Amino acid sequence: EAGVTQFPSHSVIEKGQTVTLRCDPISGHDNLYWYRRVMGKEIKFLLHFVKESKQDESGMPNNRFLAERTGGTYSTLKVQPAELEDSGVYFCASSQVGGRTEAFFGQGTRLTVV
Amino acid sequence: GEDVEQSLFLSVREGDSSVINCTYTDSSSTYLYWYKQEPGAGLQLLTYIFSNMDMKQDQRLTVLLNKKDKHLSLRIADTQTGDSAIYFCAAPAGGTSYGKLTFGQGTILTVHP
After folding, report:
1. A105 and B43 in contact by Cβ < 8 A?
2. Cis omega (within 30 of 0) on the bond before A8?
3. CA dist list (Å): B35 to A66, B29, B38, B48, B67
4. Which helix (H) or strand (E) holds B29?
C-alpha cells in the first residue's frame, strides 16, 4: 500500500513567487493534515481536512496560504506570494476517521524562499 | 493550548541506553506520542502511551509517563547507529481529531561507535 506522498520533495523559489505543494494521502483516509517545521523549531499544525471540508484551519499563518482538497482526495497548499519566513519543511499526514487512529506522515516538502 | 518541550541534542555511544525527555503542559492529554524522523524521510510513529499508563515497553523502547510532573521519556536500550535520527514528542492539540498534534522541537540523537 502506498504511503502519504508529497510533491515536490524540494522547492527553491524567489521571494514574491508562487509555489504549490501537493499531498496525496493514503487511499481511503478522510483526514488530511498539513504541518510545517521552520528550521530547528517545532512542527506546527496548519490545518485539517475531513474529506473536502476544512475542519480546522487555526494554524494557517496568514492569507498568503491557501489549502484545497477538491473531491476529497489529494490536497494542495499554495503560498502566494512567498516570503523568506515561509521557508521550512511542509509535512502532510492522513488518517482514517474514528477513534485514536495513527496519522501517517509524508516525507515532507522542503521549501526554500530566497 | 498544549506546549511541548524537549532537549535538543543527545549523543551516546553504540550499545549504551539513550533517554530522551519531554515535558508537556496539558494534563488532559489522552495519548502521548513519540515520532522518529530519519534523514530524508517523513515522520514515523514509534510508539504511544495512553494517559492512564505509567510505562509501556515495546522491544528496545520503554516509555515512561509521570503525570504529576507532566514528564514523558523514551528510553532506547542497546542504541544502534541506525537509531540516529530526530525524535519528536507529541500530544493532541485539542479538538476532536487525534491527528491534530502539538510537537516538541525534536531531539537530535547521534549514536557514535
Report:
1. yes
2. yes
3. 27, 16, 10, 9, 20
4. none
What was the pLDDT predicted at B71?
94
Cell of B100: 491534530
Nearest-angstrom CA–CA distance, A67 and A48 = 10
Tell me the residue length of chain B.
113
Q: What is the pLDDT of residues B27-38, one digit of tens each?
A: 777 789 999 999
Residue of chain B nearest A46, judged by CA positions: B100
**In terms of CA atoms, which chain A residue is nearest residue B98?**
A100
pLDDT at A98 over 80: no
The 8 Å CB, 24+ separation contacts for A98-102 are A99/B98, A100/B30, A100/B31, A100/B98, A101/A31, A101/B98, A101/B99, A102/B45
Contact of A29 with chain B, judged by CB distance below 8 Å, is answered with no
